[in-house]
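Quick question, first post here. What does this chain look like in 3D?
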Amino acid sequence: MIPDRMKRVNEVCKEALGEILQKEIKDPRVGFVTVTEVEVSPDMQQAKVSISVLGDQEEVEKTLEGLEKAKGFLRRELGNRVRLRYTPELKIYLDRSAEISERVQGLLHDLEEKRDIGLMEDIIEVLQASGRIGIASHINPDGDSIGSLLGLLMILQRQGKEVCASIPDPERYPPKYLFLPGRELLGTPKDFAGSLEVFVALDCSNADRLGGLCKSAESAETLVNIDHHEDNKMYGDINLVDEKTSSTAELIYRILIAAGWELEPDVATCLYTGLMTDTGRFQHRNTTPETFDAASEMVEAGADIFQVVREIYENQSLSYTHLLGKSLQRVEVREECGLIYSYVTQADLDETGASLAETEDLIDYLRVVRGTSVVALFKELEDGRVRVSLRSRDTLEVGPIARTMGGGGHAMAAGYTSDVNIEDSIDVLVGVLRDAQR
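> Answer (accepted):
Ran it through. Tokens below.
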């Protein structure tokens, strides 16, 4: 075990050598070098300096050659900057751990990609061979679940399939997505009566999220689970679950491409909606280069991105505007745990005439306030329970917090339902956040 004093010496030497390499070495042979570790011997006679070099093998060799020539200079400069009783002789070693890690990550990525391709092929085969197919997304649907549902519905119907599709509670269809093509093709849970060869669950981390359609899913000959939530329970017969993917809409897009089906403008508009809303207009950390590639292809295929933005973000009702004002007026910050929050009551909805479905993006108005780390919006339901939406502004992940409360979601965006009133729900969350930050 390295004594604390030697740990401090190692760290000081590492920092000093890093500055010297960055600012003082003028040899053109020396490329971009990072000091990854310094280990000074207990007698201070020698120091093992581990470095990584950016570039190909030739650049690495030239850099090592230049540093070998500069060892005397490096040692003198180190002695001038760090007061030690003896300046150690430097032994420079190439640290290949980053290179090895990159190779391992590449192999893992390839394996995951092969696995996903295999799963997509299984899903395509099942869908093509099936007669009657049911599709549903989760309770309290958002843009990704609605966009994925409508997109897959139209795709399969154009392959000549008999498809019934619905959300668990059709009366709670979010008004902001009424403009999406294919909306008129949706049915009701009653349409799922009878035998289904395949049931496709979209954007549902667990079967309970299907609400009243859960029994239909369980009774189908094959249950296909397509999702991107990290806490997915893998409840399907086929589980295409990729938490690194931006949205379920992106997974539907990949299936379409793998199957060789045509991406038509109305389908592209629905899938683009799911992609855009679940990435927060391409601002959240789940946005990847692959996400932009998919979005580009959707636009190329004719997705009406201008209508999508206008209808979702620039088309709120006057009643919701009044509700937004009330919610912003009561915003509070709990500095002891970095929480900013507000709430919406049933009385607020009655007074303004707004609906709870319109509040999907209300939390984003709180997320922009600096000096906070966690954002929460408490929404009172008709039965007195409270729906709690969470967002993270920094490194504190809210997904695990939501799961401890019986909910779920992503690292940076999650939610749960509380059985106590708003005031008590706030106190409970504050307590959990305090414990999480200790």
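The mean pLDDT is 91.
The two ends are 27 Å apart (CA to CA).
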